[in-house]
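quick one, two chains, predict together pls
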Amino acid sequence: METTLIENLPEVGAVGVIIKAVLILAVISAIAGFGTFIERKVLAFMQRRLGPMHVGPYGLLQIAADGIKLFTKEDIIPQNANKFIFMVAPVITAATAFIALSSVPVFPDFTIPSWIPLLGDTFVPSIASDLNIGILFVLGMMAAGLYGPLLAGMSQANKWGIIGAARTAVQFLSYEVVTGLSILAPIMLVGSLSFVEFNNYQAGGISNWLIWQQPLAFVLFLIAGFAETNRTPFDLLEHEAEVVSGYATEYSGMRWGMFFIGEYANMITVSVIASVVFLGGYDVVGVYGWLFIIAKIAFFFFLMLWVRAAWPHVRPDQLMWLCWKVLMPLAVVNVLITAIVMMV
Amino acid sequence: MYEIIAFYLFSALTIGLFLVTVMSKNVLYAMTSLAAGMVLISGFFFVLGADFLGVVQLIVYVGAVMALYSFAMMFFDATRDIKEKNTNSALVFLLGGLSALVLVLMFAAPIHSDAIHALYPMHVGVGNAQDVGIVLFTKYLVPFEVAAVMLLVAMIAGIILAGKKMDKSLTKDTSIDDEILVLKDEK
């Protein structure tokens, strides 16, 4: 299916947006579940093990087993915890992750065939809410998602939780700067904050991809993206070897599962931003653009697992050193050079 | 229609949340409702069509309240209520009521004026960010630059205050070990 320009699109109705929202919720939740399986398999192969093998063929039904376990596990709320905040915190993580996904292009647009009753001929857009400032909105929503770990850690009356919450605040406040500055240079080149504009700017083959013009920004954005999604070199928030499970220490059952879904949804969001902003988005030869963007997203997802298998955790002071003394100056210099080149 | 529903929903939620911020004795409730209220204010900008300002409100206040949280974490036990000392409640009531009245009068005054019109209306077909940028770099250039210089000064002051011992490593600092050893010897 070809991605069309905004002008020739059919009108987007409320029903189409609702269908799109339900689609995103269902598919991304399922992918998050499947992602855990993929993660265990990939890690296992990189460490020369087999990973989950017992449930179903090749361990495939492990997802169902994990799901049943998560749903039926007792939901424990500690006695001294601030109960309301404790119960709300996981919902914040999961909800903001999905709200962020509402303004990124996730699947291709399509029209429901007219032989289906009630919903026939409804146009389902590629982006649920196509804001002009899509990139900023997604980054802001992902930032708001970090309130989940913060509130969870502070409300549970557990010292590991407090350490996890403190690390959330520190990590978020520093890496937010790098994310913003690193993506500023491509925004300056394109002159727009809309994902559609980014896609159109890079039309016309691999040589037009922004990664060739902004390699430094790409690397910086990836590193900051790892920090924002708490993936391994920077997952100090729930560093098992140091702080038991950090902010998630007291959580069990589905509330813990919501943190998990939120994290995986955020990984997908970061992958989508990276592929649309730096790797050309939907643009590749003809009708199979949507297939290529799924391949790009899958590659970034795999990269996150690969890095987890290859790199050890960093210490908190190394994290701060890396952010403030290396990445931030590099990002500022990159923005400056881009501005000078554009002016000359 | 949708806009009216959204406006009243956001209004009720924002006022309720900020009431909790003021009334609650629990640090965690107060901070969380403050953060939620700040996020919901961005909803008003979205309803007005000022997407860019809405997102800026979101990003700025999410970060700002997060910094407040870290102070709350250092100073209070977040799971307990705080005993407040209200010495003169009549004075507080009087001052609070007066300032609320003045604010209401200030913001209600434009109702009775016909001279209100937008000095820099939004252009059709031009993005929000461009509109804000044009106004910032023409009409309000001087205040904008002054604010930038102020922030730079604040940043340098912050770095100097925090960075006095930055070249010393906390993990390699052995002076505290000596103090512990001295204390042991005295016992």
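The helical segments of chain B are 2-23, 27-48, 51-75, 89-108, 128-137, 141-162, 175-186.
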